[in-house]
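Usage

Read records sequentially. Each one opens with the input sequence:
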Amino acid sequence: MSQAEIMLIEDSPEQALRFRLLLERESHRVEVIADGLLGWQRVCAAAPRLVLLDIDLPTLDGFQVLARLKRGQATAGTPVIMLTNRDHVSHVERALDLGADDYLFKDDAAAQLASTVRQLIAHDRLPGAE
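and closes with the structure output:
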């Protein structure tokens, strides 16, 4: 199997399956990781084109993962979409301040995720874009 182009860091098996299937229907290769620390390590090692990141994760939360990714030389340019149930303005602002490229609420994601991913993957700044 070829390398995943999208890393989905999500600890809910039901949510992970829902988003993985939605993205695979759009012909994306998706790898799911259920832990923040493992997700951060995997992104650093695998260099995906895009990261979908939940906030509420074991080991490291999504904000910690996002901060590490945006500080890392090899991962700073990797687009990150926060994908969460947290809808408080302070959470959205914090994610954007840390460098998130977008912030989608899980309840609305089915309608928006495919087009948002398509737009970010098409952007020429992505690693591996041709």
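Summary fields computed downstream for this record:
- The longest helix spans residues 106-122.
- DSSP finds five helices and five strands in the chain.
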